[in-house]
Amino acid sequence: MARSTPARGTADADRVALGARLRQARRAAGLTLREVAGALSVSAGTWSAVENGRTRITDDRIAAAAALLRTRPEDLVESPARPGSGWRDFPPLELDPPLAGALEAFVELGYHGAGVRDIAQRAGLSVPGVYHHWASKQDLLVALLDLAVADLLVRARAARAEGDGPVERFTRLVECLVLFHTHRRDLGFIGASEMRSLEGESRARITAARQEVQRMVDDEVAEGCRRGLMGTPLPHEAARAVVTMCAALPQWWSPEGPSSPEAVAREYVDFALDVVRSGRSR
User: Fold this and answer.
1) N or C: which end of the chain has fewer CB within 10 A?
2) pTM score
3) Are 148 and 114 part of one and the same domain?
């Protein structure tokens, strides 16, 4: 096991995403943190640090964890966006029944309004069947928000990398945010509405990952203003307004409505460019 190092930038986000996938796989396998740590010959504290993205894990340990958790190493290492499919591609979201039931219940009833019985009914399971793999309703919420932020992070980094110059990188990020909050509408909805329901370390960790996406937009607007390509006198506030505008889409957009995600993305890119007062030049 590699020693813990200070979490910075992309490396930190990658560790958080990997830890979230390891935690979800462990729970799906019905194992406790201590059981996994013992089987892998590490301390429970070390494995907790891995699952929370605070320390790195070697390839050999990933392979051992995959065998123990009855999954493939590549499924642990790869992001939910499945690199190679493109950040604009959104294959059907595959969730185990308790997570799918929790997502449906949280969207319909809210986290505090949904009980484990509501989740079990939507998952086609008994209440003990849900508790067999998930210790609490809070664990289900954490897993869903971990999944959402890991998916969004990898897409946002890929979208930003495509751009040439701050204006183009900014428009790619806005397009990415819009596509995520429409194609992944339910995850985006609970991401906006249920962060307040997270407890303790999970709230701090997921908030930090969400802030990385905001910083990407902040940095491109600041650079655009520095180079005279954007004219807003309030770059920080403008960047916040753009991200908030995109994150609010799940509150009103519907797949049954007249506008496709792609059409909304084109409209919102124009709105965002107006907010930062860009002349559209690259």
Assistant:
1) C
2) 0.76
3) no
